[in-house]
Amino acid sequence: MTIASDLIRRGAPQGCVPFERFLLAPAHFGALRDALPMEPSLALLSLWAEPGFVHAAFLDEAEGGLLLATCPSEGRYPALSPARPGAVRFERAIRDLWRLEAEGALDLRPWLDHGRWPVVGPLSARPARNDAPAAPPAFLPVEGEGWHQIPVGPVHAGVIEPGHFRFTVQGETVVRLEQLLGYAHKGTLGLMQGRSPRAAARFAARLSGDSTVAHSLAFALAAEAASGHVPPPRAVTLRAAMLEVERIANHLNDWGFICNDAAFAWPHARCGLLREGLLRASDAAFGHRLLMDRVIPGGVLQDIAEGGAEAILGALDAVEAEIPSLVAIYDGHASLQDRVVGTGTLAPELARRFAAGGVVGRASGRGFDARRALPHPPYDRLAVALPTLAEGDVDARVRIRIAELRESLGLVRDLLGALEPGETHVPLPQRGGEGIAAAEGFRGEVLTWMALDDGGLIRAVFPRDPSWLQWPLLEAAVEGNIVADFPLCNKSFNCSYSGVDL
Fold this sequence. Notes:
alpha+beta, Beta Polymerase, domain 2, Cytochrome-c3 Hydrogenase, chain B, 3 domains, three-stranded antiparallel sheet, 17% strand
């Protein structure tokens, strides 16, 4: 049998930059699905569509780089989920958004569309009016005695995005968790289409607010690849510095909240204080606490303010000074360690099968980081450490965050010290093209594909948050744990609702 990566490369090149996209006939796309089990090193990273076509992005872990495959579709296409389980939710979303059905799919239930949209297939070539009455969402059946179900959400206590969790439990033990998202659907893809990359960048920045730099950067890199544009060196360095600052702020936030969910409020308070200092420094340096809309196609919105570098470095010094005492307190309290060690364990095999990135993947032995595997400037000349653990539990995910915190502290200092004088933005040329790019956010790799028409406007686009491949793994990690430990498991993953609801 021909191996899957060779099947893709035999397709017709379509001109995507910097990684080629190959057009396959439907029969060959079906053969690709059949060949995938024989090539586990070909990891599915994303699956999306546009009218008449379905696209898949694979990471070639053996050879390096991305491989993109496209299947023409007049309504149906061969499902990839039997070979790559991470495709399930993508296939369900494609059915909802583009009315393209995956033949032989493992799950064809609606995903984003809960039956209340005014049209069916809003991104398809011919959206249809939805005249069907809204039906309750379908969950997997429960059989046997001694089970009961606990529905949670979509409205949650506190400041949290909407999502429904349905627990099947026996006593206090969770035997199944099923998620239903889509409540934060914003129509982002439709809002981006027909606009220039510069105008659409505001939507990318708001796809998942805690990853605004990562999504903005992947979007900008894809637009620049499609248009053949190279941003100024000073802008490139500032972008990376902002990306690392965002990573530090979010890892501090997650570390504190995980401790808080184990009823240990002191680390939460200290991490919150350190994060607040960094957010204030970001505002002083770049004019926004969360760095939203700072990264744009062609460069950055504005240069770093006078004294901004010193403000950020001062905040980093405060973080670095307190990490040892925070780690000692985290390690030294048996009541906390009892809650996090061995809780919410994700098996390395599952992390590999779903191509989990970021903290979730690295805590379960999958050593992938887009800054190293798919580097863009300036990461192509930076040495980025890649911590990994095999335990896969809540504690391992905390320890990966701590290691990444320390690494990013050094990266930001190096980047700010290497700033070159020069321009910070050059407008994109108005030309057609196609590009794909990855930026390593604090959750993992953000992958954005973009196609521009001849006038430089967005013909089609798909920003893929890492949570697409991590939400299903949370369902697996919580099995066998008690209901009271779900908040710990959930926060240690910290998947984005909005990022996958589009």
